[in-house]
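Is magnesium ion placement plausible here? Inputs below.
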Amino acid sequence: MPHTTRRYDTLAAATSWKPVPNGDSRMEITEIFGENILTLQGLKERLPKSVWGELDKTVNEGKPLNISVADAVAVAMKDWAIERGATHYTHWFQPLTGATAEKHDSFITPNQGGGAVAEFSGKDLIQGEPDASSFPSGGLRPTFEARGYTAWDPTSPVFLVENQNGTYLAIPTAFASYVGDSLDHKTPLLRSIEALDRQAKRALKLFGVDEKRVVATVGCEQEYFLVDQEFFYRRPDLMTANRTLVGAKPPRGQEMDDHYFGSIPERVLSFMLEAEKELYRLGIPVKTRHNEVAPSQYEIAPIFETCNIAADHQQLLMLTLKRVAKKYGLECLLHEKPFDGVNGSGKHLNWSMATSNGINLLEPGESPHKNMQFLFFFGAVIKAVYKHQDLLRISIASAGNDHRLGANEAPPAIMSAFVGEQLEDIIEQMLNGGVKESKKGGLLGLGTPVLPDLPLHAGDRNRTSPFAFTGNKFEFRAVGSDQSISFPIVVLNTIIAEAIDELCTSLEEAIEDEPDFEKALAEVLKQTFSESRDIIFNGDGYSEEWQQEAEKRNLLNLRTAADALPKLTDKKNIDLFGNYKVLSKREIESRLEIWAEQYVTTLTIEIDTTESIAKTMVYPATVRYIEELSTAVKQTKDLGLDASGSESMLQTVNNGLNDLGRALGKLRDVQKTIEADKPVELAGEYRGKILPVMTEIRDAIDFLERYVADDYWPLPVYREMLFVK
Ligand code: ADP
Ligand code: MG
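Reply from A.M.:
I modeled the complex. C-alpha cells:
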C-alpha cells in the first residue's frame, strides 16, 4: 500500500533546522544606523556650497532643479556609491501593483583605450526611461507608447542594496506616462503632501502661527507570519496565492493566548535581529518587535517619520522581511489572512501632522491657545472621515483584506472614529451649548469659559475601531498587512486638507460677525461636530448592535472590495482629488480599473489553485484511502467480524468526496455564467457568484482533512505550519 509519508519528511526537516553560525553578534546601532543611505546632510558635505544651496531650495521649497546642479549631485552620489562597492544604479519606483520595481544600469562606460570609466550624469539621476509596458496603466498608456518615465524624488534619500556578490545604488523615483499621468503611488503622495501643507499653514496663520512647512507624519505597525520553508514549498496555495486556500483549523489555536507578547522563539529572534540590522543600515528607525496574537505571528514597528519617507521605508521593510526570512529557512507571509480561523494581519497606520519644528498638531497643548488649535485640527479630521468614509474604505480595499475586515478580529468594514470617552463628552457638551465641566480628572485646563478642558492623556484603548484617536495621533487600523501605505496616506492627507480648507473658510467668515476669536471658533466647531458626530463611535465595533446602529446613522457598510471600489469614481471623489491637484479624473479612472483587475486576478489565481489542489492532491489521497477502507470492510466481513466501524468511516469519507465533486461541478457551472468584461463589473460577479462556491469547495476539503488518514494527507496542516518555530 503506497503511503504518502513525504509530509513527515517535511516535518522532520522543518523541526531539525539548524542556524548557520554567523560569528559576531554585536551591533553598534549608532554606528551602523544609516550607513547605507546618502542623506541630505551627507550630500551637503560632498557638495560645493552653492550647489547645496540650490538643491536645498528644490527639496525644501519645491524649486525646479537646474541640470548643472543635478550633474554635481550625480557625481557626489556616484562617488559615494562606488566607494561602497556599488557597480550599478537603479531608479526605484512604486508602480500600482503595490510592489516596487527597478531596472539596473551599470555605471560603466567604455573609453577609447579599451578600458572603462564610471559615469553617472545629472540626466541619469533626474530621469529614467524604463519600458513600462508590463506595468499596470489602467488605460493611461496606449500600447504604442510603452515608454514610462521615472523622475528622481530628492526628498527621499538614495540607498544601497547589498548582495554577497555585489552592491547597487537605488534612487527613489516617481513613475509617470509619456504624457505625464502618474502610473505610481509616489506621485499622488507627493502632491497630497503639498495640498495638506498649504491648508494647514493657512489654518495656523489664523491662530497667529507662522510655519515654514507642515507635513503628515506616519508610523506603521506591520504584522506578519513566519512559516518554515519546508512547509511553504509543499503548499501550492502559499506559493501562488500567499495564503492557505484550504486547511482545517488546528485543535489548538490562539485560544490559549500564550503566544501574544510571549518570549520570541530563538530562530525567529535571530531572523528579527538580522532584518533589523539591515533596516538600521538603511536608516529605518525600527523600534518595536513582539509576538502577535496568533501562533507564528509577529509585529515590527518603526518610529514615525514624514509620510513620504515612511512610505518608502515601509516598502523596504516588507522587502527586507521577506528576503532575510529565507536565510533562516523561513517564509515571511504578509498576506492579510494566511490561515482561516486564525487571527489575520493588519498594518496600523498611525497618522498625524507636524510642523517643520516638530510640533505635533494633534497633540493637546499646554496652553489654552494651543488647545483651541488642537480642537480645530482634531475637528478637521473628524469632519474629513465623516465625509469621505467611502474613500477610506476604498484605500484599504483588496481581495486579501476582505477576509479580515468584518471578521471578528479586525475592524469592521464600516468606517467610524473612536475618540475616547473624555473627548466624546467634551464634544457633547460643546454641542449642548458650551462646556460646563469635564467628566473626568487629569484634565488640562483651557482657562477659557468657551472651550472645554482636554484630557492630558487619552489613555483609552479600543481595538475594534478602524480609526482611533490615541492621544496625539490617529491610528488607521483597517489597513492591510500586504498593501502599500501610500494610497491610504494620500486619502488622509487630501480629505483632511479639504476639511481644513473648509474650516478655515468658515472661521474666516465667522470672525467677520463675531470678532471674539474664541467664540467664533467655538461656533465653527459646534457646527462641524454637529454635522459629523455620527462618525464617532466608542463602542464595540465587532458587535451586531453596531451594524444596526451604523445603518440607522446612514454610515456606509461596504463589505467587500468589489462593493467599495466602484465608488472611487463618484463625482465627489473626482472633485476632491481634482480640487487639490492630487489625481486627475483620468488618473482616478485608471486606478479603479487597475485595482478591480487586481481583485479579479487575485480571485482567479485562488480559484485555479484551489481547483488544482482539489483535483491533483486531495482527490487522489482520498481515493487511496477509500480503496483501503473498502478493502478493510470487505476483509473484515469475510472474516465474519463486525465491520460497522470501517463501514461508517468509509461512508463518511465517500460522502465528503462526493460533496467535493459536487462543489467543483458547481464552480464550473457558475464560471460559465460570468458575463461581464469590464474589470469593475467582473469584480462584482466574482464576489457575488464565485466566492460562495469557493467556500463550499473549501469546506468539503477541510472536512476530508479531518477524516482521511494523516499519512495520506498530502498538504502540511495548520498545526505543523503554525506550531513548528
Ligand atoms: P501602540 O499603538 O501599539 O500602542 P504606539 O502608540 O507606541 O504603539 O505607536 C505606534 C506607532 O505610532 C509607532 O510607529 C509610533 O512611532 C507611531 N507614532 C507615534 N506618534 C506619532 C505621530 N505623531 N505621528 C505618526 N505616528 C506616530
Ligand atoms: Mg497601535
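Short version: Residues 133 and 146 are 5 Å apart (CA to CA).
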